[in-house]
């Protein structure tokens, strides 16, 4: 099953953003908080659910598994999907400029 390219959840977006540098679970939770400027604090249950789904969709892959911890990395498809979502969100912001008048 591949990612269908529809709008991403906030969790998916920030996981991909944080995985622009390979990371393992605990580091990844901290990186998500950092890249979201503290707006998103993801617990382990949510994180591992999102990671599992994104791995099945081919957006991320396992970079390393030393038995103690798994390190994940974004795939080429994942980076493409992230850039598409970024452009979609930018378009939403531009469309909303009417509110500034």
From TrEMBL:
It holds the Pfam family PadR. Residues 20-83 form the Transcription regulator PadR N-terminal domain. Signal peptide: none annotated. It comes from the Bacteria. InterPro entries: Metal_resp_DNA-bind_regulator (IPR052509), Tscrpt_reg_PadR_N (IPR005149), WH-like_DNA-bd_sf (IPR036388), WH_DNA-bd_sf (IPR036390). SUPFAM superfamilies: Winged helix' DNA-binding domain. PANTHER family: PADR-FAMILY TRANSCRIPTIONAL REGULATOR (PTHR33169). This is PadR family transcriptional regulator. It comes from Niallia alba.
